[in-house]
Amino acid sequence: MPVLVRIALRNMREHIAKSVIIGVLVALGVIVLVLGNAMMDAAAEGTRVAFIDNFTGDVMVHGPSKAAVSIFGVQSMSMDSDTTVPTIPEFERTLELVRKDPRTAKASGMAVAYALLSVDAEETIADAAMENEDNNGPPFAIVFGVDPENYYDMFPSLKIVEGGRPLPGEPAIVIQKSQLESLAKRYERTFAVGDKILLSGFGTAGFKIREVVIAGVYERASEQSGPMQMVYADIDTARVLGGLTLGADETVKLDATQTSLLDTDDLDALFGDDMVESVADSDKALDPAKFAGMLGDSTERERLNAADVGAWHFILVRLKDSGSAPDYIADLTKSLGAEKIDARVVDWKAAAGSFASFSDIVRIIFNIAIIIIAVVAVIVMMNTLVVSVIERTGEIGTMRALGAQKGFVRSMFLTETLTITLVFGAIGSVLAIGISLIVNALHIEAGNDLLKLLFGGPTLKLSLRVVSFAFTLVMVFFVGWAAHLYPVAVALRIPPVKAMQVE
Questions:
Q1: Which residue stretches of 52-90 are H helix?
Q2: Which of 315, 332, 348 is the last residue of a domain?
Q3: Are 382 and 484 in a shared domain?
Q4: pLDDT tens column, 7-16
Q5: CB-side exposure of 300: number of CA atoms within 13 Å?
Q6: pLDDT (tens digit, 9 = 90+) per residue, 352-376?
Q7: DSSP H helices in 392-405
Q8: 466-493 and 16-51 are packed helices; what angle lies between their axes, rounded to 10 degrees?
């Protein structure tokens, strides 16, 4: 056994109280690091699997936008930015490029909109907002307009437990069971497949109402982290609610006769007695035939409000190997550039938006806490070692007088400190493994959606990895090395002769 190690073990026995204090700090630090990283790793992996398997796929293609775009819309905190979700230019060509890549397993188009679920056509958005104060207003829904031929096969975890998929061309939705229960509670009636409800859409496209049939009721095959307010609609319903209509991109030209009213400065003439008198004649004013004549031919208006059948917000892609996503994104981006198609290609995390970044934020907070704990541990260990050095001043002086160099004294203290960290670090690692096994066996359930995001699933699972142990070992050695620097400097400042005189 090397001399330095024998000296370190002897000093640990002679100063057992101080060694235990330092060792307990090291063991606790190892337990916190190992369990914390195990929880963060499990949450990150759970979130990744949940979103890839349930919502985003491995890769997402979307239209050009200055702000970040997710499947839930434009992610922007600025009030001045445009939050309109961009459409994919030349969708069919883009989809062809995606599908011809041999790494592509499945691909499907999608559009997104936002709506309130209700059955009362007279219920307004403002009414809903006020009623939501008691948590009893119309349920909010993120409306995913999907291609039924591809989307449901792409995400098999979406299990339709009642009814079925919407038929082609049918204004219908597949709704989550909990949302249907919220509707039933609000309107004090039961809802079943085949019933009609209203989707009151809102957003940059304005307010739009669509009546749809409940085609099916779904549940997830396994509860995972992620948003739980989605309804899946036929693509045209989502397009209309999201403003993807023929009139959205078409400039309407008015002739001089249609704009003549805007040229007058005489408001009395515009809203004069003639208008009041005509409205006062209620029998004639409310004549449907007369109103139809006043409004004129509505064919063009109906055409402009029809869904733009070529408009899609996203293409979601499942790969044969999720690990190939970075190379796939780079290659597809080059292919789109070569075809002069202005579209963006992002990974699952960008597609998931703020939901996926939650685990990253938690990890950052955890790492900051670890740094603070490490600093405190270094200070406590340093103070303990300084006391030990002071008590051993005579011993150090004698060693220096007998010819021990400063380098030997430094190595002696470093070996002693690292031996303590290694021994108690091993004890902490064993305890951490035991605690993780107990926690996993208990199957601690997440009580709410926030905990589901934090846990990366419905239950708390700790995932121990070799990388985490290696990181912990490096951190422990760094703490031990940093803690010994100041005490050694104190010891070496004392002249050997003076040190030998200290009892």
A1: none
A2: 315
A3: yes
A4: 777 777 777 7
A5: 7
A6: 887 777 767 777 887 788 778 777 7
A7: 393-401
A8: 150
Report the 3 state secondary structure along 214-225: EEEEEEECCCCC
Distance CA 194, CA 200 (A): 19
42, 150: one domain: no
Amino acid at 157: S
89, part of any domain: no
User: Within 13 A of 45's CA, how many CA atoms are on the CB side?
Assistant: 12
One domain for residues 124 and 182:
yes
Band of pLDDT at residue 154, cut at 50, 70 and 90: very high
Q: 165 and 110 share a domain?
A: yes
Average pLDDT, the chain: 77
Q: 242 near 85, Cβ under 8 Å?
A: yes
Tell me, yes or no, whether 238 and 130 share the same domain: yes
Pair (117, 212) in one structural domain: yes
237 in the same domain as 377: no
For the segment 304-324, what is each residue's pLDDT rounded down to a tens digit? Answer: 445 566 889 999 999 999 999
SS3 170: coil
Between β-strands 230-234 and 73-75, what pairing exists: parallel, antiparallel or unpaired? unpaired
DSSP state of 134: G
Calculate the CA dihedral of residues 233, 236, 241, 245 and round it to 10 degrees: 170
CA nearest 115: which of 154, 78, 87, 143?
143
**How many domains does the structure of the chain reveal?**
2
- Report the run of H or E that residue 201 belongs to, with start and end: strand 196-201
Instruction: Report the 3 state secondary structure along 412-423.
Output: HHHHHHHHHHHH
**pLDDT score recorded for residue 143:** 92
Give the end of a domain, one of 258, 291, 315: 315
- This prediction has a pTM of 0.70
Tens-digit pLDDT profile for residues 420-449: 888 888 888 889 889 988 988 888 877 666
Say which DSSP state 111 is in.
Answer: E
Whole domain around residue 465: which residue ranges? 3-51+357-500
Residue 67's Cα: distance from chain center in Å?
16
**Distances 228 to 18, 51, 218, 503 between C-alpha atoms, Å:** 53, 12, 11, 72
3-state secondary structure string, 283-314?
A: HHHCCHHHHHHHHCCCHHHHHHCCECCCCCCE
Q: Let me know if residue 77 belongs to a domain.
A: no
Pairwise CA distance, residues 198 & 241, whole Å: 11
How many of the other CB atoms lie within 10 Å of CB of 381? 25
Residue 101, pLDDT above cutoff 90:
yes
**Biggest distance spanned by C-alpha atoms of the chain:** 120
The pLDDT of residue 18 is 76
pLDDT surpasses 90 at 107: yes
27 belongs to a structural domain:
yes
Alpha helices (H) along 65-200: 91-100, 125-131, 151-154, 177-187
Question: Does one domain contain both 46 and 123?
Answer: no
> Hey, which residues does 113 pair with through a beta bridge?
143
Q: With respect to residue 68, please indicate whether it lies within any of the assigned structural domains.
A: no
